[in-house]
Amino acid sequence: MTLTRRGFNQTLLGAIGVALLPWQPAVANLIEGRDWRAISPPQPRGEAGKIEVLEFFSYSCPHCGDLNPLIKPWAAALPPDVTFKRVPVTFGRVAMANLARLFHALEYSGDLERLDQDIFTALHRERVKLFTEKDILDWVASRGVDPDEFKSLFNSFAVETQLKRADTLVQRFRIDAVPTITVDGRFVVTGGNSHAERLIIADQVILMARDQVTVS
């Protein structure tokens, strides 16, 4: 079944209650400093002709784990002119860097979709330690991933390149907390008292970004 943006937002509104309905902002009512902040200077856009949405996150962040089941269907229902990418951050910490390596290595192995939410569960519910290479290799092996092949990916040049790219984005976008959602290299979504509310605001910021592109 195809998930439309309208259908997703109706489901999202139902999940967080009709009390939100009067609060949901129109584009004209978005307030800078409450619902969004500008990225200064604006950063280069991703794919030409597309509005790029980035989610900066870490598996070490329990709030990112709570957002993950919501943001996946939200991203799947984005319009064709919007792209969505996840960016695992390290903030200069070895443990977070290993988790970022885990994310990228799973991308390359083709196991990310299968194990993505399981990583949050292992860390924050089962209290499994996944902060060293050995711990990570033991865990992925327990999930049916070949540990030798995964170790090669984990320490590969391709993964190292992804880590450096992510660190550069964190610096340029001035990301200091996760989860953080950015839109079109120009806006950071800041509003909302829940993850669901923030995604609704993100939709409005995407519209704002599209309107500005049209005007320019």
Tell me briefly what this model is.
The chain has 216 residues and is an alpha+beta fold. 52% of the residues lie in helices and 11% in strands.
Could you characterize the architecture of this molecule?
The chain has about 220 residues and is of the alpha+beta class. The chain is about 50% helix and about 10% strand. The chain has one domain (about 50-215): Glutaredoxin. The protein is built from eight helices and five strands; from the N terminus they run H-E-E-H-E-H-H-H-H-H-E-E-H. It has a five-stranded mixed β-sheet with strand order 1-5-4-2-3, sandwiched between helices. Strand 4 and strand 5 (about 185-190) form a beta hairpin.
Please render the helix and strand layout as text.
Blueprint: H1 5-16, E1 36-38, E2 51-57, H2 62-76, E3 82-88, H3 94-109, H4 112-124, H5 133-142, H6 147-154, H7 157-173, E4 180-183, E5 187-189, H8 195-215
Parallel strand pairs: 2-3
Antiparallel strand pairs: 1-5, 2-4, 4-5
**Average pLDDT, all residues:** 88
CATH topology-level name: Glutaredoxin
* Total E-strand runs: 5
CATH architecture verdict: 3-Layer(aba) Sandwich
Radius of gyration over all CA atoms, rounded: 18 Å
CATH homologous superfamily classification: Glutaredoxin
Helix content: 40-55%
Number of DSSP helical runs: 8
What is the general shape? Answer: globular
What's the domain count?
Answer: 1
User: Can you summarize the main beta sheet?
Assistant: 5 strands, mixed
Uncertain segments are 1-5, 13-25
**N-to-C order of helices and strands:** HEEHEHHHHHEEH
Strand content: 5-15%
N- to C-terminal distance: 36 Å
